[in-house]
Amino acid sequence: MTQAENTTDEKMLVANLQSKESDKRAAAFSILIKKYSERLYWHIRHLVLTHEDTDDLLQNTFIKAWSNIDKFRGESQLSTWLYRIATNETLTFISRKQLNTVSIDTPEGSIAELLESDANFNGDRADAILHEAISHLPEKQRIVFCMRYFEEMQYETIAQITDTSVGALKASYHIAVKKIEEYIDNAD
């Protein structure tokens, strides 16, 4: 599919999502969910780690998108707008749950134990150590690292989602990589 076809398809999807006809809106929303659920799921999952929390946050993301689709002006891509909603929902969740979630001050190995106890986690020890290292990053670095490393997003896209300059994102990513490398080196 060419860029022009993709843009036309997105404009049509947005028009249908903003339609006054409820059947058209519902069908378009179903397409939106099918198109973006998996990508948004993994975006959120890398930040909160558990399947249950990720499912709740994904549902909240789509509820907010449905409730606010009329406010979408098309100044960015629909995916960028959805990622921004998902990121904001996730950050709000993390802030609210700060006392009840695993943090830097938790005993060594707790992230690995949390992941390994999750029936939906099928990674190995190296993957668990990587996620443990990521969990030790400050919030902004964690978000940038996950978007760039796992989702292979361009810095320009991340900048739109996080409302941060490309230069600051590159610096955050570089620092995050160094911290993760150091953590992994010390984990052996």
Give a brief outline of the structure:
With 188 residues, the chain is mostly helical. It has helices at 3-17, 22-48, 51-68, 78-96, 110-117, 125-135, 139-149, 155-162, 166-187. 74% of the residues lie in helices and 0% in strands.
Structure overview:
The protein has nine helices and no strands. With 188 residues, it is mostly helical.
Entry keywords:
single chain; mainly alpha; 9 helices
Shape: elongated
Number of strand elements: 0
Number of helices: 9
Measured by DSSP, the beta-strand proportion falls in: under 5%
- What structural class do the secondary elements suggest? mainly alpha
First CA to last CA: what distance? 46 Å
> Unreliable segments (pLDDT under 50, ≥5 consecutive)?
101-109
- Name the helix and strand elements from N-terminus to C-terminus, one letter apiece: HHHHHHHHH
Mean pLDDT over all positions:
85
What is the helix content? over 70%
Instruction: Specify Rg, calculated over alpha carbons.
Output: 18 Å
Major sheet details: none
Write the layout of secondary structure elements.
Blueprint: H1 3-17, H2 22-48, H3 51-68, H4 78-96, H5 110-117, H6 125-135, H7 139-149, H8 155-162, H9 166-187
Helix pairs in contact: 1-2, 2-3, 2-4, 3-4, 4-8, 5-6, 6-9, 7-9
